[in-house]
Design a protein that fits this description.
Radius of gyration: 20 Å
Oligomer: single chain
Largest sheet: 7 strands, mixed
Number of helices: 8
Strand content: 25-35%
Amino acid sequence: MAEQLVDKNVMAYPVNALFYREAGRAELTSIERAREKENSVYIQSSYSGISRGTEALVYHGLVPEAEWSRMACPHQVGAFSFPISYGYALVGEVLAVGRDVTRLKTGDVVFALHPHHDHAVVDEAMAHQVPVAIPPKRAVLSANMETALNAFWDGEVVRGERCCVIGAGVVGLLTGYLLKRLGRADVTLVDTNRDRQAIAATFGLAFQTPDTLSDEFDLLFHTSASASGLQTAIDHAAFEARIIEMSWYGDKPVTLQLGGAFHSRRLKLISSQVGHVSPSKRETHTLSKRMREAIDLLDDPVLDALLEPNIEFADLPHHLPRIFGAQSPILCQVVHY
């Protein structure tokens, strides 16, 4: 029988949280636990993943004020700009459940959109069960896989189309992986970092750098968050190609060359954002169902190539300058609790 939150002292554990205190400085801080409810589950963290793109902006204090509300993450503690506890890739074991919890039980492994805390209290609806066949460490990729899956749906890939992904970060690599696995497409991955060629090969993807790219493509995904990357997509788009823009620029202006063949080729520039289910699936999928599908897609051991060796939660503040460095080669940094 599942332990009940309201009857047990399991909730008395202290909660240690990573806080970004000021630009370039973070520390671990003990905080009060979230208030439990009848539909709450109490999680002991096992792993979390660091999103270098988004969390680097938070760490360096570069989230523009106009974006503070849109950038807020579930279960965030504090507010922009500082101090703030931020993150959205937590995996752990359920220690106890509330009386109204029906889907989960103690011992279940779950993923939650939650900052880097060693314990967490979330509503049952926000805790997504991880199948036994998927290692908990790999499950930290769930949010990134959800983003890639939604973009894949936005692209509405047609079998036989020539596909290209520009930007070989975690989301770009997962997008290429889905195009290959679900879309049965021939995929070229493009990045300025030639070291990404090895992992592209692991995923069965061709690799090019922008300066060597000569082909044209029917469907292109841009994830590099740079104007030059988006321009590369436009320059290599075939007639009536679709360009799926997945990057987030904040308040950074983007300058593009939209003359030339942009109009004569009848190109489509389509934004993709994970806050809503893609229109192509909106009638059949809720946010929860999309997350379940994303987690199920993590059943392939090849995805472990995206995961960096563990660092311990207690040492996390010490490692952040290296993780968020401009030239960091890190893909998904895994934190162990």
